[in-house]
Amino acid sequence: MWFNSSIITSIFFAKFSKDFWNIFSIQIFLFACSGEALTKRLRSKTFRAILRQDIAYFDQAEHNTGALCSYLATEASAVQGASGVRLGIMLQNVVTIGVGIFIGFIYSWQLTLLIIAFLPLIVFGAVIQIRLIEKFAKKNNNRLEDAGKVFIWNILFVFKLINFR
User: Pick from 126, 40, 42, 24: which is nearest to 85 by CA?
Assistant: First the structure.
């Protein structure tokens, strides 16, 4: 008798894990599609706004071709990172914590209260990690923008040399 119930339980958990994997894959795909659509729309609107600027806007050193190309490449991607798959994972984690606390209160309220006592430490660690990642990403974006400026300047210099001959 125990043999049949363990097989049925194993089959149930195997099916449950397969279904969960399928749902999770669909969730990631849909959040990635929405993030990509948002990024495409944001890049298009930013490009239109850049094209509508006065000529004097492009004469400024911080608005040269390399800086604007780097801006289009990095800033829209940062929005996608904040709204696409990352948003889905954050939403899933918040729901998982909520459901876990609810189930914990049902089975052992003492242990759940102990876990909730350490939850601020976990959140504090996550906030510190996010701030460090943002700090390093900002440095990386500044360096990428400088590299884009140098790249465009070098290409223009080569064109001037070719035209000079």
Answer: 24
Q: Could you state, in order of their start, the residue ranges of all structural domains in the chain?
A: 2-164
The closest alpha carbon to 148, from 94, 91, 73, belongs to 73
pLDDT in tens, 41-82: 888 898 898 889 888 888 887 777 777 877 777 777 777 666
- Output the CA angle 85-50-38, nearest 5 degrees: 20
How far apart CA 119 and CA 112 sit, in angstroms, is 10
State how far the Cα of 2 lies from the Cα of 13, in Å rounded to an integer: 16
pTM listed for this prediction: 0.55
Token pair of 117 as six digits: 């006592």
CA 74 from chain center: how many Å?
A: 12
How much is the mean pLDDT over the chain? Answer: 81
Closest CA to 86 of 45, 126, 145, 136: 126
Helices marked H in the chain — which ranges?
A: 2-51, 55-59, 65-83, 85-107, 109-164
